[in-house]
Amino acid sequence: MTRWIPRLVAGLAALHFAVALSASSTFGDVARAGFWNAVPGNPQRGYETWFFIAGFGLLALGTLSQRIVRDTGILPAQLGWYLLAIGVPLQILCPVSGAPGLIVLGVLALIAARRGRAGESRTPLSSTAERQQGS
Q1: Closest alpha carbon to 5 in 102, 81, 108
Q2: pLDDT tens-digit map of 40-95
Q3: Is the pLDDT at 122 greater than 80, yes or no?
Q4: Residues 98, 51: contact at Cβ < 8 Å?
Q5: CB 63 within 8 A of CB 79
Q6: Picking from 3-12, 52-61, 95-104, 118-127, which range would have the lowest pLDDT averaged per residue?
Q7: Are 73 and 135 in contact (CB under 8 A)?
Q8: pTM of the complete model
Q9: CB-side neighbour CA atoms (13 Å) of 55
Q10: Under a CB-based contact definition with an 8 Å cutoff, are residues 77 and 7 in contact?
């Protein structure tokens, strides 16, 4: 589970990009408007632009946590807390959204991080040091 959660977060980012780019004409409208200052005053453009930009935040969380897992073998608990900090308010403010996915991934990340820390405390110190040096 430790290695899959960052991949799922990055996959959610890819889904954000795909939906934002394929489900609307907003980006074509922005391009026709010349990009500069093309979003203010148009709520639909603003919504879809932020939806697209949120994909970069998810991509950053997924790829950075993937790197941490690769280097240490442990998923950082912060990933779970960040996903919950995004997902819970989003669920309250916008119940018909992808918030349940963020909440589920956040809880799974916290479980994986807890298991990783528990496994690390049972691992002999020399094995932990060797694993960190070998990665």
Answers
A1: 108
A2: 888 888 888 888 889 999 999 999 999 999 999 999 999 999 999 999 999 999 89
A3: no
A4: no
A5: no
A6: 118-127
A7: yes
A8: 0.77
A9: 17
A10: no
Is the predicted pLDDT of residue 24 greater than 90, yes or no? Answer: no
Nearest to residue 12, comparing CAs of 51, 43, 45, 49?
A: 51
- Cα–Cα distance measured from residue 16 to residue 11, given in angstroms and rounded to the nearest whole number: 9
Question: What is the C-alpha separation between 49 and 35, in angstroms, rounded?
Answer: 12
Distances 76 to 57, 61, 62, 64, 89 between C-alpha atoms, Å: 17, 11, 11, 10, 22
Q: How far is CA 36 from CA 33, 47, 73, in A?
A: 8, 17, 44
Phi-psi region of 40 (alpha: psi -120 to 50; beta: other; left: phi over 0): beta
Distance CA 30, CA 25 (A): 9
Q: Pick 87 or 32 by higher pLDDT.
A: 87
